[in-house]
Task: structure prediction
Amino acid sequence: MRWMMVMLLVGMTWWHLRAEPTYVCQRTRSAIIVDGRLEEIAWQRAKPLSPMRDLSGAPAQYQAAIYMTYDAQYLYIAARLPEKNLTATLTERDSIIYRDDDFEVFIDPTCTGTNYLELEINQLNTVWDLFITAPYREGARCIALHDWDIKGLKTAVTLQGTLNDGVANDQSWTVEIAWPWASITGHSELPRRGAAPAPGTEMRFNFSRVDHKGGVETNTVWAPTRQATIHAPEHWGRVCFSGNEVGTPESFPAKVGLWVHGNDKALTEDTVKLWADAGITTLVIDGSSEAIARISAWGKAAGLECVAWFWTLNRPEDTEALKHPHWYAVSAEGKSCFKEADRPFVAYYQFLCPSHPEVRAYLRRKVVEIASIPTVDAVQLDYIRQPDVVLPKALWANYGVDMQTILPAYDFCYCPQCVQQFGSTPSATSPAWRDFRLQAVAETANWLAEAVRNSGKRCGAAVFPTPPMAASMVYQDWSRFQLDFAFPMVYASFYGEENAWILERVREGQQQIAGRFPIFPGLHLPDFGDDFTSMVSALLAINPEGLCLFSHETFTPERRAQLRSALSNAAERVK
Ligand SMILES: [Zn+2]
Result:
């Protein structure tokens, strides 16, 4: 039951079909000092990996209690190895460490069985690190780079006993490792170079201890390879990275977000409690910093996760931005969002240029300000896009436009900054120019997400239904975004579509993102009636991480009751 819950949260419902061991590595927000003493709260809270086996899978004579956690910079590994007779001789880095008793870590960050990393360490804290291009059985394809070093690696060993005294009265040795993400995900094969993995990311690991007793070498591992070597990455264990703080339960129910317009004066702490009772787990709050702080404090008091909703590139009535006319996005017709008369569709479309360095610096400052509110757990980037070059179909009539082709009046950002960076004359139909603008938006998103993570918070975005739709409608290819989560706004009525369309778009989005971060599909509450319960159930069946609801004004008592019933049905199904 509990294991099933873990799988639901990490969205890996197929895990139970797998023979290899698995582990959910949770994040730490408190510091870890690499001194081999494991006194940090994170190590007290982290769960150990499953017991070690011998290579064949049989129960092992030797054991190690292994723990993992991570933060933005490092993957942390700790191990306590019971040992009666502490013995070590090798002191030179990159010696063949397994000739001593050792502890070994193997990481296949891409789960491809190629380009994997190995670290061996002995009781003298001597390290051998190597990069291996393919398993040894592949002959010439296997190159083991002994000269490769894990840049910034920190290791420490403490001994519970006396080294090399030849007396079998020792207790154990303890290893603590901080392995920089820059040296795990830092090679070109990997999509997230140098960054901590997004929640939901999976990597393959193995751990091993080598013991030499009475002339016999024993190899004990976490994931049995069922052959004479550990160099069979296809049999290694699976580690899934969770965004949850180390020690918190990875529990059902799924997350259910509610978009909240924070400037609504009618909101009270009791309203927030009603939402929590209905099964809402997460508030996504917009409005002034004061409103976000006030409502998120109520949210925290009700046990809810609180996400600040940040208007990113569309900044209506931003008095500071309005002092800089050259910050604003410009259409193919040369009209700027700065001037009210020139704005596309509506007066509040006050879009900034995604490429301008001053714009990025300004937004970074604003987003960090919002992320720094103590009761805010994460930030959602909204309007991280250009104005609609193609509006959702059902809205064409409202604005009297036919958007089957790209209309220059709605096609942004042709500002001098962008044109100069692009380096040649833009043409609406040029794939390179399209890609330049997709990249400009993605880079702004990633730059801001990094700033939010550096403030110790998570960062997500509200996005159009699927990456290809978002790319063609608003230059928002969110498959290029490096996020902790996304809320795809699968608002069927905007597209003249029905409920089945929602599920199809969610599946497409999942395929495009391939588990790099969880998605919480956004439902447009006014679109639903009696079908709301079945919609939530159907969505949870294909996307057990959860969903999000837009917005609080239409989260009526009837919808609350329907949500409660859909969530309790889902919980029943899990049992
Ligand atoms: Zn521009």
